[in-house]
Amino acid sequence: MIRNERNNGSPQKRPSPSSSHVNWSPLSSPVKTSRHIMDSLVNLRGDDDVIQTPIAPALNFASNVVVEEKFSSQLMALGELEFRKAFLVLSYIGSERLEEVTTADKIRRLKDLAMDKFEEEVWVSLGRQYVTPADRRKSLEWESGKTYEYHCHVSENGSCRFKGPYVDKTSRTHLQRVLGDDNVLIVKFASVSDGKSSGDNDCFAEYSKIAKRGILVGLRCYRFFDVLLRCRLNKKKSDNSFSIKVWHEKSHKEVMLQQTFQNKSATFETSLLAQKVFNGGKKARKKDPTSSSVRCLFVRFESDASVDDGKDYVLSGKTIQEARRVFMHVHTLSNIAKYMARFSLILSTTMKLEVDLADVNVDTIEDIQCQDKDGNSVCNKDGEPCIHTDGTGYISEDLALKCPKNVFEGSIVNGDNVEGKFSGMNSTESDHRVPPLLIQFRLFNNGSAVKGTLLVNKKLPPRTIEIRPSMIKVKSDPNLSNICTRNTLEVVATSNQPKKTSLSRNMIALLSHGGVPDDFFMGILKNAIEESHGVFSNKRAALKVSHHRGGMDDVSAMILSGIPLDESYLQHRMSIMLNEERKGLLGGKLPITESYYLMGTVDPSGVLESDEVCIILDNGQISGKVLVYRQPGVHFGDIHVLNARYVESLEEFVGHAKYAIFFPCKGPRSLADEMAGGDFDGDMYFVSRNPQLLNYFRVSEPWMGNSSTFGVSSKGPSELSDGELEDELFKLFLRTRFRPSYATSLAANNWLAIMDQFLTLEDSNSCEKALLKKNLLRLIDLYYEALDAPKTGKEKFGSSLALMLAFLKIAEKSGLNYVSSTGRT
Question: HSE of 337 in the Cβ direction (CA atoms, 13 Å)?
């Protein structure tokens, strides 16, 4: 391996990949051109080698002489443009070769135009000829300072199409702040059209080669760096969930759980169902073959663009592993799954808190362990100590005052989210503010990565943060103490004023099991429908429906500003709002009064008993019985009834800060853990004071987690070579992207199906009902284990097939013979 030891702070130069008599464009075939470039960059030992470092001018390894090569004049001209302008040109030529559609002179003539004028000129001369109008990136916010995203769509044959830049109204990620928006490329690989999901597929071989050799964007080279997984547990049911029939031995026939499956002799791998599960559904693939919640992120390592000459760049001269250590010492983790999961912390959409961490005391305090009545520490079934304080620490008031209120997913709700604007607040303004009570955060400090929540603590000395071991997800490597890392404190969310909330399908099923009658839910549904009927004619009804949606629409503001209800645009917005409201009702989202979602933490005073909580709302602390639940709980005991009490000493810690639920730090088990294995790293808890719910509902015994039934791979990242590590990481991406696990959605959907049957069975069928309940509990254990698998690295339910087989056994033991299509849930 030849290595360039020079590091002058400017982007490393790549060798020119073309010969002196042939002009070429990386747009024609990125796979071929990448091979050409990288073969000249590094003396490859074989196809499995991963290119690790940017190299100095190209060498002919046979003769060890520098080869004189040059780029096409069009690429050279493109390299003189600001990157977003250059990318826009590449985006607007689609799959065409740059050299065949324009000249260097034409490119240079556009160089000094303002971005809006530049876009218009490039669209007229190139865009409207080679791409569809939907791909046009016309914007009025080019100079707004907002985030830009750059996309690359890779087809099955390895060819690339660039799309963007997209103006993103959300905040930046830590990765984007450190490298810059233009140095991060979001890469989306197309699904396989032949339905194959084997790692031996030629398509995946091409994808792997691209990961090793990088993607050329003009005169820049981007390399595989991280994986972005955007998923929602309760996503809209589409091709990602499926249904089965179970062979019922007693009746000698198939019985339906949800929709249609093949007969008993059909194998899972060869069935049409398997193709649908593993490939994401034909309908979605026809619409956009690159559509997926899993995307690769490539980052720039090298550049031959003249616009990059002489500019400092944080990854200059670094290998991929060295580049990752700029963010955290992720190599210290125990397995590849954790490596990928924890490194993705830099992809959280956050707001940077303008704090110099060199002047902040970051102290580690012990977690509070659970104890039995004799004062002995309690361990879980895996032998690990149980703790009450999982994921929560403290922050001094002066630092908390630097954080704005009403932050959600890194942005100020209904505020100005341009980066850095809030940091201009002066100290006088801070003195009159009340800080957020809780801050959900990410802390990257000297190679460590910390996540969780920080509770404002007026008793702490200034400029102090206290974290706990349970919050430290990546530890610093003491052998790398001299390596410079990018330290920062990032805010994900704050504890905000709760909006109107709704029940969910899971909650309705659990509440129904706990004794809440059907009439209660039907009454809510009837009232919601009646209110929606008056939206177009009654201001109060329109405002109420808008309020139910949490102010996510501009309807309320328009009505309150005096716009009449019959105004055409307002009618249009209200029709959209009403459709969404009705969709929610169909999905079980029933609006309920005196209920809230609050961020959870632990009582710092130690006053609360094991069945007590403290809740702070608009008017301070509340008292009385409350019903508490955490999504996505499906166990009968995941809904608790607790005593809310006033804790006077709590004000000494939090002052007048509001909006949170405090759990006790006493008892043999954390109350949060009893609710679907919750913790305090930002989890939101449903809290209800609704008198009817409290009157009807009867609690069940809480969920008790079983010990793990499957381990993790023993070989850690530090035991792999750099090449082997990159191979394993990209293989993990390919498995996640093309053979995703639908274990959680499968378990959740079929839990609902069996729960529906369980609730509709008559009490006279006590034996069958007891058997159903027993097997429901087993399915719940499988569901919770599948939920934690991505974080723990446990692979038992890494594929839908494993959970499918386990579920089939449960279903058959239940003697299923009917699932209601119009049941209670």
Answer: 16
CA–CA dist 25, 729 (Å, integer): 29
Contacts of 434 (CB under 8 A, 6+ apart): 655, 656, 657, 658
Question: Which residue reads 């509001």 in tokens?
Answer: 658
- Return the closest-CA partner of residue 736 out of 789, 784, 805: 789
Centre a 10 Å sphere on the Cβ of residue 770 and count the other Cβ atoms it contains.
10
Q: Which residue has the tokens 């233009």?
A: 182
Report in angstroms the alpha-carbon separations of 391 from 206, 350, 394, 602, 603: 41, 18, 11, 10, 13
Looking at the DSSP bridge assignments, the partners of residue 451 are 442
Percent of the chain that is helix, strand, coil (3-state, to 5): 35, 20, 45
**261: helix, strand or coil:** coil
What distance lies between CA 492 and its chain's CA centroid? 12
The CA distance from 789 to 545, in Å, is 39
- In contact, 173 and 348? CB cutoff 8 Å: yes
At 41, list the tokens.
Answer: 């960059």
Helix 202-213 crosses helix 30-41 at what angle (to 10 degrees)?
50
Using DSSP's 3-state secondary structure scheme, residue 534 falls into coil
Give the Cα separation of 374 and 519 in Å (integer). Answer: 46
Listed in sequence order, the residues at least 6 apart from 92 whose beta carbon sits closer than 8 Å to its beta carbon are: 122, 123, 126, 127, 130, 131, 135
Give ∠ CA 308-87-161 in degrees, rounded to 5. Answer: 130
Closest by CA position to 186, among listed 153, 212, 160, 234: 153
pTM over 0.70: yes
pLDDT digits (tens, 9 = 90+) for 365-382: 999 999 998 889 999 877
Rounded to whole angstroms, the Cα distance separating 574 from 596 reads 25
C-alpha triplet 187, 180, 208: angle, nearest 5°? 25
- The label of the residue with tokens 């991963």 reads 50
Cα–Cα distance list, 275 to 188, 281, 358, 466 (Å): 20, 8, 53, 49
Contact 254, 263 (CB under 8 A): yes
* pLDDT per residue as tens digits for the range 575-599: 888 888 888 888 888 999 999 999 9
Provide the pairing of β-strand 464-467 with 612-617.
unpaired
Among 63-67, 516-520, 682-686, 763-767, the minimum mean pLDDT is found in 63-67
Cα angle, residue 351 at apex, residues 350 and 357 outer, rounded to 5°: 105
Task: Give me the domains of the chain, ranges plus CATH numbers.
Answer: 241-278+741-825 (no CATH), 501-592 (no CATH), 595-696 (2.40.40.20)
Output Rg (C-alpha) for the chain, integer angstroms. Answer: 29
Determine how β-strand 640-644 pairs with β-strand 612-617. Answer: parallel
Lowest mean pLDDT among 323-337, 527-541, 703-717: 703-717
Give the Cβ contact number of residue 177 at 10 Å: 18
Axis-axis angle for helices 800-813, 766-792 (nearest 10): 170
Q: How many other C-beta atoms can be found within 10 angstroms of the C-beta atom of residue 196?
A: 16
405, 496 contact by CB (below 8 A)? yes
